[in-house]
Amino acid sequence: MTEAIRPQNDTAQDRQERRLSTAKCLLSNADTDAAVIEYCQTVLDPPGYERSHTQARLDACTVRLALAQTDTTTRRTREARQVLLAVSGGPQ
Description:
There is one protein chain. This protein has one domain. It has helices at about 10-25, 30-45, 55-70, 75-85. Helix content is about 65%, strand content about 0%. The model has no long low-confidence stretch (mean pLDDT about 65). Helix 2 runs parallel beside helix 4 (about 75-85). By secondary structure, it is mostly helical. The chain contains 4 helices and no strands.
């Protein structure tokens, strides 16, 4: 996946919307399990940057929202939901 060039006035909201969009695209793939797990790992442990606790919770909430919007439920997506629920601080 290539990194898109982003405008300098890129806001946190823009980044959050891109994360959600990416999650939705991955979840619509035929191989849902692999896509979900890969995206969760990428969001929760991105290479090259230290994330604050608040940012980690926001990232986990983004993935939880994407998981909630998919029609496919498997053992792995249920496990991912449980992990993300813990990371994001529980139901909001």
